Amino acid sequence: MDQTYRNTPVYSEVIIDNIFVKTFSKRKYESQFNSLYQHRSNELKKRVMKLAMPKWNGCDINGMKTKFLPKVLDVPFSKPCFIIGTTLADMKYKPDVLKEVELSVQGHFKELNELNGKAPDSMQDIDKLRKASYSDPKTDKLWLEDESGRILLTGDLLNKKILVTGLVIGVLGMEIESGIFHVVDIMYPEAAPQKFIEPSLNKEGKLLLCSGLNVSSKSDFSKYEMLSSWICGEFGDIERISSINEMMILGNSLGVNDIQENDTEIKSNKPKKNKYIEDFNSQYEEASVKYLDDFFSKLLQSVPISLLSGINDVVESGLPKQAVHQSLFSKSSKAENFHRLTNPSFYEINGVRILATSGENIDDIMKYIIPNINVTEDPIDESITNDSRLRIIEDSLLWQIIAPTAPDTLWCYPFENSDPFTLMETPHVYVIGNQPKYETSLIELKRKNGESVTIRIIALPKFSDSNTCVLLDLQSLRCESVEFN
What we know:
Belongs to the DNA polymerase delta/II small subunit family. The chain contains 12 helices and 18 strands. The chain has about 475 residues and is α/β, with parallel strands linked by helices. It has 2 domains: about 25-30 and about 195-485, Purple Acid Phosphatase, chain A, domain 2; about 35-95 and about 135-185, CATH 2.40.50.430. The longest helix has 23 residues, at about 35-55. The chain is globular. It starts with about 35 loop residues before the first helix and ends with a strand. About 35% of the residues are buried.
């Protein structure tokens, strides 16, 4: 009987970058987040200036020459200029821990209880609104701030752009009223350099991408068995499956079981909700973990697996999520071709640099963009929340920050003198898991020296909902979806 063998993946000496690795023994939580913001600002301001200065400095607006002002509070009235700073989105339903501290210190306990949803029913609804969106279009404001202070941004151009908290941008315009800056153009940071793909490393092969297995006691296990059988060649399709060098699973391998009203024992043992992070609704099921361990160990006999942690998995809530502990998948972890990755993760295979996340960063950005269905005058079709995520993902590469809303509304570790979410290198492929549907695009970013960098973007759907995986060709960076019915 003829046997077909897969090509062995080509790894660099360090296939997994350690920029997102933070071992528990070295963690320090006494630091303030100001250090992270300061590092982000210092790094990206220089890159905004590289592009803004040659385009804007000295240009003519209404017969007046523009110039750069290093402080937002130095903006003169009714004179064109450009400034650089960090955006702050002021939104009605955005969690505000500082507001709670202020009310507590001042002794306004009645208002504090209302803010925490411990008073009228109308206040208890706020947490529900925050899950869908932070936005109330009637009251939303966008500020630009630096060390000197902040200024309010206005203008029709802002309605055409995706702008959230934590971006470092340049804006061209003029102050039309005291403290109000009318924007006519926006500049993002210069793209970070991209590593050259060595031809000697870039062998033929494909990467199988999958996310959101969501295995639980209520799962339809036939879909996982079908996926396993296909990868192992039991359905034929030998030419395609033999080209797979590795399988990457982008978070949420474990599923969430909703707590029923009669599950009083589970409810009493469930930790109280922290309103500044996602609900802790993942219930640990030993049977589900054992099934996944057996599922992975079977596949590992045929193909290497790299596994990212996700919000449903047994890991901490904040970013970057560390790799799942090896004891969780005791059988699979014994295999040398089983790679446990952080979330996000920078990974290299066949010379291709891949940036992967399980999708929490994009999901949080969505809450800044989609107006809240419960507070808008015109009803918003539910399909909007399932609309294309490509624009957001592409813009996050323009911003050069993959998680700009961390730590404002997306919990993360308080890094000192660094911000791992700021891109110091542009990946060849950016993959985001657990999205509403499969989408892909190829974008090109320009650099000041005239060169351009190209990035393949892939939005992966949840396998538990879509029965869909994606094959990425590691040479051409083309991809195709594979659906199991």
